[in-house]
User: Fold this.
Amino acid sequence: MFAECYGERPDEPYRIVDAASISAEGERIRELLGPEGPDHLLAILPIYYRFMEINAEIFDNSRILKEGMPASPKLTSYLHLCARQPSGRSLYQQMLDDV
Assistant:
């Protein structure tokens, strides 16, 4: 879906690395995610890495669904809207609308 919205990538931009390696690649992150990409990514990485240390292999939201919370739509169902609208706003800027 990303390739459909943003075009095919001739290179392979994905690697498994630690948080320190990502911090050292600010310019590469900026190229991949836009101008505010490094700030957002580096702010959430410590939280993500701490979560991954608890060895949770599967996130299960069945309890909150049973309590009546509607299921979230899949990113792939609305990514095309984020890529097209509104023009000139990055995904990060659009995320602020949800806060």
Observations:
- The chain has a mean pLDDT of 80.
- The helical segments are 2-6, 19-23, 26-33, 37-52, 62-66, 75-84, 91-95.
- The CA atoms of residues 28 and 38 lie 9 Å apart.
- DSSP finds seven helices and no strands in the chain.
